[in-house]
Amino acid sequence: MDLIRVADLWEANQEYLRQQLGQSQSRRYGAHWVLMPESPFPRFNHVGRIRVKPEEVAGLIAECRAFFRAEGIPTYCLMVSPATQPASLADELRSRGFRCQTQTVMVWEGGEIPPIRQPVRVERARPDQLDLVFFLLQRVFYPGAPLESLEAGRRGVEVSAAIGAIHYIAYWENRPAGAGMLFPYAAMGGVYNMATLPEFRRRGVATAVLSAILTDAQTLGCEYVGLTPTLMGRPLYRRLGFRVAYHERYYAQRV
After folding, report:
1. Residue 211 to residues 117, 220, 236, 248: CA-CA distances in angstroms?
2. DSSP states of 63-74 as a string?
3. Which of 3, 19, 91, 155 has its CB surrounded by the most CB atoms within 10 Å?
């Protein structure tokens, strides 16, 4: 695996998607500036895909701080991966007192895809089924969430579909049981929003959704398929051939 190429493709995939879903207003320094004010986590309000010269680092950090302060975000954050330039950026941020959070990246390079077995059925969501997709995601990811988070989540489903994401709905004996999303971009198939309703877990629903995603990713010519797993999801992804490729590092500091 060419780690730098994989990291570059995965960054391109997720950063482009995040920019479309958020309110990014800058492309300074050629980086991807992601602004999602309704999301409190630093990794959803950050500068990513950083490819700058060593002498530009100080200016980038200063502009990053000013940008997020002007937007009322309490922290400013820079994302570092194996493809980040300069490679010394992480050392520079640590020396300035930035605190680091890590996110595991798992990648699939091809292999055998298990068949989808009855009574599970997986279908691509039609445009008139996006509300059902959001209902499934809400049950899993947003129980009791405030209204602004729900509105952002619903908007995310619609916007991602409009820019080429494929949403999937899994049915257990004709009852909606789970969902998932494939975003093919820059030779990378990005897997997002893998969700199974609690009452249908451990019945092969997530395996069926991921099998459909991997099949479509191959058909679409994706070189790799990437995702950032939860702890609960890692065993499933390993069984289907995903391997830990590297860890994204999010360096944050309070404004």
Report:
1. 10, 14, 11, 25
2. HHHHHHHHTT-S
3. 19
For the record, the structure tokens of 219 come out as 């058909």
Report DSSP state, residue 51: B
Whether the ω angle into residue 86 lies within 30 degrees of 0, i.e. cis, is yes
How do residues 107-122 score in pLDDT, each as one tens digit? 999 999 999 999 999 9
Both structure tokens of 25: 């207003």
Banded pLDDT at 40 (limits 50, 70, 90): low
In angstroms, rounded to a whole number, what is the distance separating the alpha carbons of residues 87 and 140? 38
154, 142 contact by CB (below 8 A) = no
Q: Do residues 248 and 102 touch, judged by C-beta distance below 8 A?
A: yes
169's CB contacts (< 8 A; 6+ apart) are 122, 123, 125, 129, 132, 133, 136, 176, 178, 179
Question: Is 80 exceeded by the pLDDT of residue 94?
Answer: yes
The two beta strands, 188-196 and 224-227, are parallel
CATH class label, 120-222: alpha beta
Annotated domain spans of the chain: 3-103+247-254, 120-222
User: pTM for this one?
Assistant: 0.93
Instruction: Provide the β-strand partners of residue 75.
Output: 254
